[in-house]
Design goal:
Blueprint lengths: L3 E8 L8 E8 L4 E5 L6 H9 L6 E6 L2 E2 L10 E4 L11 H11 L4 H15 L14 H13 L5 E5 L7 H18 L2 E6 L2 H7 L2 E6 L2 E6 L1 H6 L4 H6 L6 E10 L2 E5 L5 E4 L4 H7 L5 E6 L4 E3 L7 E11 L3 E7 L3 E3 L14 H18 L20 E3 L2 E6 L9 E6 L5 E4 L11
Helix pairs in contact: 2-3, 2-4, 3-4
Length: 427
């Protein structure tokens, strides 16, 4: 097995902007680490740098504390499973599974025996003599996983292996992957944009955004104690409500002033009151999950009111969208950093390395291939939007009703205007 450490890893494709920027992460021996984030955040690039499929622009990579930047992909002792499966189309299932063993010089009889045993574990014994194009998507991914396992690698690297499957097959294979990796005790780094996969599979989750590490912790930690408004917004369905607010501090008491003439109040004994007393007049962002709001809260001191605009029936519950007059904050934009440009010295170094790589591989690196810069946004972007609330399936209300919701203040998150937690519990 293997531990993996990334120390300020960076990657640039164009010598101008970073696709991954100073990314640091440690994966313990036998740990299941999930890299989670939206499309384009750099998670697959990080995985490919671990695998040796992408050159590292800056920073250091270690396997078992051995410097690995220049170790070839085939010598790193890792096995990779791709989104597409990436099977050899002219080889049978048996041929695909035994191929790594053949390359390692193993005897054909022994390789076939291992393939047969592994196919039984994966439930694909009946497909051993079939070609990949005759298999279902789920079967192809099982073959790809089998080909990775049979090598007995020190680490698995999985790049969205379930994203091309239907919902039922994703659930089934997700459970199998989780059970198999834990039984084998193999270090696993798993890339996904699916929060359900991340929360159910991971020992720890590393949330990425724009090539940077946004938060890392156990599934419970990143969900219940998010470091930033972006993390709070990315995890959870329905999405968290992020409310624009200003702090009013008077006489040792703190109120959070919302739009539409509404406000929430913190108890004087609440430790967050002490944190906010020195922030009087500041704009902050309040995070409230949909299940932290209770219908018919007229008698409660902390409540929000509005007009029920629409209801969505989800079987066991309704999802309500309520017009409150409160400004909402977009979690995708709040706290987003301006893209960092590579320094002139680093750019020259990049192109020298690119030229050497071109000679080695024959791959042409073009200076005119640049990536679009990110929006230069650091403060919250406000918009008029609905408050999202979960309601019991027997709710008596209909669209157009005036409704009031009690807010459970013990479950409210407080972020500064740049999206960083004010009230974060240390972990």
């Amino acid at each position: 097995m293997s531990s993996i450490r990334l120390d300020s890893i960076s990657k640039s494709y164009d010598g101008e902007h970073f696709a991954v920027n100073k990314f640091s992460l440690s994966v313990a021996d036998g740990e299941f680490m999930v890299l989670l984030g939206p499309s384009g955040c750099g998670k697959s690039t990080v995985l490919r740098m671990m695998a040796g499929l992408e050159e590292i622009t800056a920073g250091e990579l270690y396997f078992n504390e051995v410097f690995a930047n220049y170790i070839g992909a085939r010598d790193r002792g890792v096995a990779m499973v791709f989104q597409s499966g990436a099977l050899y189309p002219n080889r049978t299932v048996r041929g695909n599974i035994t191929f790594p063993l053949q390359m390692a010089g193993e005897k054909p009889e022994e390789a076939n025996e291992k393939a047969h045993q592994l196919a039984g574990v994966l439930g694909i014994q009946q497909t051993l003599d079939r070609l990949p194009q005759t298999l279902s998507g789920g079967q192809r991914q099982r073959v790809a996983i089998g080909r990775a396992i049979v090598r007995q690698p020190s680490a698995f690297l999985m790049d969205e292996p379930l994203s091309n499957l239907d919902a039922a097959m994703r659930t089934e294979l997700r459970q199998e992957i989780g059970a198999m990796t834990r039984d084998l005790g193999i270090t696993t780094v798993y890339v996904t944009h699916d929060q359900v996969e991340a929360l159910t599979l991971a020992d720890r989750i590393a949330v990425m955004r724009d090539g940077r590490l946004e938060d890392v912790g156990t599934p419970a930690e990143v969900f219940d104690d998010p470091a930033t408004a972006f993390v709070a917004g990315f995890l959870g369905t329905p999405r968290i409500n992020l409310l624009s607010s200003s702090v009013r501090a008077e006489g040792g008491r703190v109120s959070l002033v919302l739009g539409g003439g509404q406000a929430l109040h913190l108890d004087p004994d609440d430790r967050r009151t002490t944190l906010l007393l020195r922030r009087g007049g500041e704009e902050i962002v309040i995070g409230v999950r949909s299940d932290a709001l209770t219908l018919d809260g007229e008698a409660q001191p902390n409540r929000v009111s509005g007009r029920l605009r629409t209801l969505e029936y989800h079987g066991h519950q309704w999802i309500a969208y309520v017009e409150t007059g409160i400004e909402m904050v977009n979690p995708d934009l709040v706290g987003r950093l301006k893209p960092e440009r590579i320094s002139t010295h680093s750019r020259r170094s990049f192109w020298r390395r690119a030229a050497r790589a071109t000679k080695r591989s024959g791959i042409l690196h073009r200076r005119d291939q640049t990536r679009a810069a990110l929006p230069e946004t650091s403060a919250p972007t406000h918009r008029r939007a609905d408050l999202v609330v979960e309601l019991h399936s027997s709710t008596p209300h209909v669209p157009g009703d005036q409704v009031s919701f009690a807010v459970d203040m013990t479950r409210v998150y407080l972020f500064d205007r740049h999206g960083h937690r004010i009230d974060r519990v240390a972990r």
